[in-house]
Design goal:
The structure holds 2 protein chains of 2 kinds. By secondary structure, chain A is an alpha+beta fold. In chain A, 28% of the residues lie in helices and 38% in strands. The termini of chain B are far apart. Chain B folds into 3 domains: 170 residues, 3-Layer(aba) Sandwich (Rossmann fold); 171 residues, TPP-binding domain (Rossmann fold, 3-Layer(aba) Sandwich), CATH 3.40.50; 170 residues, Rossmann fold. In chain B, helix 2 links the parallel strand 2 and strand 3. Classes of the chains: A alpha+beta, B alpha/beta. The structure holds thiamine diphosphate (TPP) and magnesium ion.
Amino acid sequence: MLQVISLLVENKPGALMRITGVLSARGYNIESLTVARTLDPGLSRMTIVVDVDPNLRQQVVKQMNKLVNVLQASDLTDSPAVCREMVLLRVRATLESRTAILKEAEIFGARVVDSSPEGFALEATGHSEKLEEFIDVMRSYGDIDVTRSGSVAVSLEPRKLRLQPPVPTKAEAAKVG
Amino acid sequence: MPNMMSGARMLLECLVREGVDCFFGYPGGVTLPLYDAVYEHPIRHVLVRHEQNACFAAEGYARATGRVGVCCATSGPGATNLVTGLVNALMDSVPVVAITGQVASKLIGSDAFQEADTFGITRSCTKHNFLVKNLPDLPQVIHEAFYIASTGRPGPVLVDIPKDVFQGQAHYAPVSAIHLPGYKVFTEGHTGQIRRAAQMIAEAQRPFVYAGGGIIAANASAELRELVELIDAPAVCTLMGLGALPGNHPNFISMPGMHGSYAANMGMTHCDLLIALGVRFDDRVTGRLAAFAPHAKVIHVDIDPAEIGKNRNPDLPIVGDARRVLAKLNRMLREMDSAARNTQSEARQHWWRQVRAWQSQHPLAPVSSDSEIKPQHVMAEIDRISGGQAIVTSDVGQHQMWAAQLIRFHEPRLWLSSGGLGSMGFGLPSAIGAQFARPDKLVFAVVGDGGFQMSIPELATVGSNGLPVKIIVVNNGYLGMVRQWQELFYNNRLSAVTLDCFPDAAKLAAAYGFTGRTIERPEELAPALKEAVDEPGPYLLNIRVSPFENVYPMVPAGAAVNEMVLAPPQPVPVPK
Ligand SMILES: Cc1ncc(C[n+]2csc(CCOP(=O)(O)OP(=O)(O)O)c2C)c(N)n1
Ligand SMILES: [Mg+2]
């Protein structure tokens, strides 16, 4: 089973490399990775989906938590969380198939974001497995181009964020002490 | 009035504020502005002869004192030469700050002369690293680097500084606070967990203490000793932890693991409670993990939460600074009366009898001979002459294991060895760093003939600074540890392990301006060591030892630690 890791990270050069380094150093292949700013522009939220040996999952999250630029890394695999992914898909549509494609899109809750005589561009969000079904269905109508966003996840449990308060430098501490 | 100064000066001011009195380095093109500032600055810079040794020397300095060691290298080849030292410090949790020069910021990414992606290369070699792109950030970053290197689980931190940042002028305002919101240090152990630990200890029938480098890093030797005495348990110290408990302490059962003592490994195997303090259940200690301490409940104290459960799942984890955790634990144990602590119970006394029996069945006895110098004999003599008080650095190989087995250390920070990385070439430069840090101490660099030749250029650093380091080459004419494995596991097909053409030690030392000598007779050993120690300056003592001696006991790779081989297979007597 895939592991879903959610991270709150400082928006600093090299932060992404450090995090993915924890996985690549152990030979793990990342399934998907998303990253974007949070309400605080100095911080980013990252969701990583990765196939990690089950007995090393904790270790991987602990190693990520040790990184100076990581404020919090949590394993959402087995905890209450919502995971969603978006797919943008272009499908060639012949005149005869257009209505059928739109019907299918509707079933999957997809939206048409572009329409031309050649075909449609569709946007769908959902659970990754659902999106895979959607992609399969669309493929049956002809050539498709697919771009997936990778999963984004949000924990449904409140998570206490432990941040280190500022500390005096050595010289400053010596002055005070 | 704004306090204008160059980035280079600013860096040195920050080092002063961190209490740095000397640092080890090698200059180059992009660090010219830094060295120009060094020229007139009171901080002492020690010119080594290779950047790897700058890092090893900084480690020697740090290991001998607990203070942050500092090294410096230029961009490109200078920085890449640091890599082995950085990984070494990372593996052994040694606080080091490395300063590297980088090409001017506008040239970064252009394949400029002597450009290397130091920030990228050293990411996985450091606890953390920085690339300073703007001069005003420099002081903050330097103090953050020292803070990260020296707190929590210590480690190396690298700061990469482009030439224009060194050269630029800016107002310098001393930094008073460090803000690293994502940097988590767990110092206080959980009181409830510590109370449970006290209870488990009181209930144990066969407790055993397994102490490591974390005790030394946390300066928790006194607390460890108190614990061991309060509960009167046998205790081992790992290769990284030697000296955490005095080498002559009655409860000390020497080193466990691949070349550990019989009693240490049997104790681990048969105990019912393993009290693991500042250790990481390294494979060289545990042997086959599934068979390690099979009957024991495990209490694991470590400051790094990622060490908990990494190799062995503890029954009771305590994340915290060993010194604080042990202080609390000792207080709780002291509050119990000795009956509740259970130290006098029949079971405990039986346990001690068992451990003592193991010790006397197979002691780590120094071997000696009348016809040749045994390497173990060398260690016994160093033990005698140093009286548990000298600093001894080692290189990597057979001599390292014999030294660890046979030289006793009565204090922490005396035994400096490359444990996790096992990096040959560590012995001499780390002794240089240690001698700079502790000019009052007798410092031995115990090195193999292989590792010594990896660090020979540093004889110049020794000579030019008149450092009274005693370099003891345990010269067996082989890459002994590799030869041992080839003998035991590859049908004695000795491949690429012969070290002929070793230089004449007297001439070699003389070439660098100090005294050297080669000995090969057992009766020469004690007088020669005395001569080396009595010499006020550096001394190179090359000792020709028996070439085919092997390190025992030995736990073969993949075996359980109680399946150790105790002695060389005896030759089968030929029937008459
Ligand atoms: C940099 C480095 N290269 C290779 C090794 C592998 N290695 C481990 S011990 C050893 C032999 C060391 O020989 P020597 O320095 O003569 O010490 P001895 O074992 O003979 O005491 C070697 C080659 C190593 N540990 N470090
Ligand atoms: Mg040798």
